[in-house]
Design a protein that fits this description.
It is a single chain. 57% of the residues lie in helices and 20% in strands. The protein has five helices and four strands, in the order H-H-H-E-H-E-E-H-E. The protein has 172 residues and is α+β, with helices and mostly antiparallel strands. It starts with a helix and ends in a 13-residue tail after the last strand. The protein has a four-stranded antiparallel β-sheet with strand order 2-3-1-4, with helices on one face. Belongs to the UPF0316 family. It is a multi-pass membrane protein. It comes from Alkaliphilus oremlandii (strain OhILAs) (Clostridium oremlandii (strain OhILAs)).
Length: 172
C-alpha cells in the first residue's frame, strides 16, 4: 500500500507541475511576469518533491513509470486547461465576398468591432474583415461567420496587446 501511495504521489506531483508549466509559459508569453514567477515557484517546488522521490528509488522502475506517466498526462491536462481558460486576445481575419455588408452588420450586432479592407484574391475582389476579440469569444465569431458564409476564409492569430479602437463586450 505504501509503494502504491508513493507511485501516486510521483504521478500526481508530475501531472500538477507539468500542467502548471504550460500555464506559466502562457503567462510568460503574455508578459504576465508576477503571475508567471508565482506559478514557477510552486511548480518547481512540486517538481523537486517528485524528482526526489524518483531518485531515492531508482532501483524501482515503477517510480520512473509513474514519473513519465505524470509528465505525459500533465502535458495533456495543461493543454486542456489552457483551452478552457481561453486567456488573452486574438485577431481574426475573415475573408469573404458574399454580402459583406450584411456580415459586418451581423458581427457588429453581436458585439464585435470590425474593420473592413478591400483586397484582391485569385478570384477577384475580396473583403478582409479584421476583428479583434477575446479568445473566449472565438466560437461565437466562428458561429456568426458560418451562419452567414460557409465558404468564408478565417485566420486567427494571437495578439499580445490591443490598445484603442472598438473593443466591446459580447452581447447576449
Amino acid at each position: 500500500m505504501e509503494a502504491l501511495l508513493g507511485y501516486l504521489l510521483i504521478f500526481v506531483a508530475r501531472l500538477t507541475d507539468v500542467s502548471m508549466a504550460t500555464i506559466r509559459m502562457i503567462m510568460v508569453v503574455k508578459g504576465k511576469r508576477v503571475i508567471a514567477a508565482c506559478i514557477g515557484f510552486v511548480e518547481v517546488s512540486i517538481y523537486v518533491v517528485a524528482i526526489g522521490k524518483v531518485l531515492s528509488g531508482m532501483d524501482n522502475p515503477l517510480n520512473v513509470l509513474a514519473y513519465a506517466s505524470g509528465f505525459a498526462t500533465g502535458n495533456y491536462v495543461g493543454i486542456f486547461l489552457e483551452e478552457k481558460m481561453a486567456l488573452g486576445n486574438i485577431i481574426a481575419q475573415v475573408i469573404s465576398d458574399y454580402e459583406v455588408e450584411k456580415l459586418v452588420e451581423k458581427l457588429r450586432n453581436v458585439g464585435f468591432g470590425v474593420t473592413v479592407i478591400e483586397g484582391y484574391g485569385r478570384e477577384g475582389i475580396r473583403y478582409i474583415l479584421n476583428v479583434s476579440l477575446q479568445r473566449k469569444h472565438l466560437s461565437r465569431l466562428y458561429q456568426t461567420v458560418e451562419e452567414h458564409d460557409k465558404k468564408a476564409f478565417v485566420t486567427v492569430t494571437d495578439a499580445r496587446a490591443i490598445r484603442g479602437g472598438y473593443f466591446a463586450g459580447m452581447k447576449k
